[in-house]
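Quick bug: Protein CURVATURE THYLAKOID 1C, chloroplastic output formatted oddly.
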Amino acid sequence: MASIFGNFPVVLLVSRAQTQTLHGRTGAAAFPTVSGLQVQDRPNRVAVVVKAMGEGSESSTSLSIVKSVQNVWDKPEDRLGLIGLGFAGVVALWASLNLITAIDKLPLIPSTLEFIGILFSAWFTYRYLLFKPTREELFQIINKSISNVLDQ
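Here's what came back:
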C-alpha cells in the first residue's frame, strides 16, 4: 500500500465540484470528496494523507524470486545446492570482469564491441520494451526461465 503525505495551502484544495465541508463543519473551505483521503485542519494550511488501496501489479517478479529462494532454503537437502549456486554466481562474475578487463586492453576491439552493444540495446528496446504486448511477452519469458532454473 502506497501513501502520499502533503501539506498544502487551503487555496490549492478548494474545488467548486462535488465538495464536503471540513470535518462536517460549515465554513468557507470545502474539499473534494475522494475515497481514502484524510484531511486535517491547520491555520491557513491543510495536511492531506492519501493511501492507495488495492493490489499491485502481478508482473513483479522480484517477490516471487525471493519466495522461491525462501522455499528452497527451507528444504535442508537443497541448502547445499543453493549455496553452491550462489558461489558459482560470484565466481562467474569475477571471471567475467577479468575477461572484460583483458579484452578492454586490446586496441580497436573495445570500440567495436561498444558499437555492437549500442546496436543490440537499441534492438532489444524496440523488440521488448517499447510496446506493452511485447513487454508482457518478455515477462513471460523471464518467469519461464526462472521457473526452469528453480525447478517449479
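Actually, after a second look the formatting is fine. The mean pLDDT is 74. Closing.
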